[in-house]
Amino acid sequence: MKFLRRLLGTLVLLALCAAAAVAWWLHQPLRLAAPSVEFSVEPGMTPRQIANGWVAAGVQTSPFVLYEWFRWSGQARRIRAGSYEIGAGTSPRELLRKMVLGDETLSTVRFIEGWTFRQVRAELAKAPGLRPDSQTMSDAEIMAAIGAPGVHPEGRFFPDTYAYSRGSPDLAVLKRAYRAMEKRLAEAWAQRAPHAMVRTPDEALILASIVEKETGLATDRGMVAGVFNNRLRIGMALQTDPTVIYGIGESFDGNLRKHHLLTDTPYNTYTRPGLPPTPIAMPGKASLLAAVQPDVTKALYFVARGDGTSVFSETLAEHNRAVDRYQRRRGSAASR
């Protein structure tokens, strides 16, 4: 009996020592092969595969011990798929907690006010870690894939910063941006002023895109919208250069010439009355609101001073004097 008691005591002591060693290990910083280590947990991965993956990525510990910790904790099946990054000082306990909480390392992509859809696609193509599902698709195929078949893509995505986990499809980012614009447009349309000439949310989006491209200073946005609102009301051509440039497309060399203004296209607002058929860029929230809440003004013209601000005029004579002062003397092109 003495032998058995001694053996039992020894086993208990060894168990306590092992438990103490495990407890100590769980709180010690993991050794890393680099200042930070990244690993993506894919859907369907087993705890053993996850442990092996972290070790292969640069966590310098036993994959067996790491796996046993995941299993022994009782939380192995709660690990969430995602992209994770750990740095110096991360313990095994913190590593598991990070994955259970889904505390991913996210990257971001930013869409800027006034960008065209071509620029959005270019930005997605160079976003790090974003799966390029849309790169081989046409614009029409992309819109169908995000649930908006038959919708022209221009101006339909809200300019903002979007976070994503490594390996996410770029179509998922586009879908979020599309839904964000739908929401922002609906919110703006609900605040439409009685004097606004836009008749539908789509028209508001088109006008907002023009206001976005035409406004150099944020405080002028309402007045710019007011000028275009007045022109729509009296049936006067909008005569806005950004729509002409958009209609020229990729062949535009940065220099707008007189023959461009005279060449008829669906987007030439010098040769065609009313709004162009689609937006010409992505408007931000302020431009959306300006389109539905334009300033009440008698101005029909405006010209850029060259410092980001504009001069607004009620008559053509006033406008011509402003053009002569701020544009012609510098040899600049058309004004509105």
Automatic annotation (TrEMBL):
Family under the similarity heading: Belongs to the transglycosylase MltG family.
Catalysed transformations (reactions): a peptidoglycan chain = a peptidoglycan chain with N-acetyl-1,6-anhydromuramyl-[peptide] at the reducing end + a peptidoglycan chain with N-acetylglucosamine at the non-reducing end
GO cellular component, one term: plasma membrane
Top-rank taxon: Bacteria
Protein name in UniProt: Endolytic murein transglycosylase
One BP term from GO: peptidoglycan biosynthetic process
Chain positions of site Important for catalytic activity: 214
Coiled-coil regions listed: none
Record keywords: Cell inner membrane, Cell membrane, Cell wall biogenesis/degradation, Lyase, Membrane, Transmembrane, Transmembrane helix
NCBIfam families xrefs: endolytic transglycosylase MltG
Enzyme Commission (EC) number: 4.2.2.29
One example GO MF annotation: lytic endotransglycosylase activity
Purpose of the protein: Functions as a peptidoglycan terminase that cleaves nascent peptidoglycan strands endolytically to terminate their elongation.
Gene3D superfamilies: Classic Zinc Finger, Endolytic murein transglycosylase
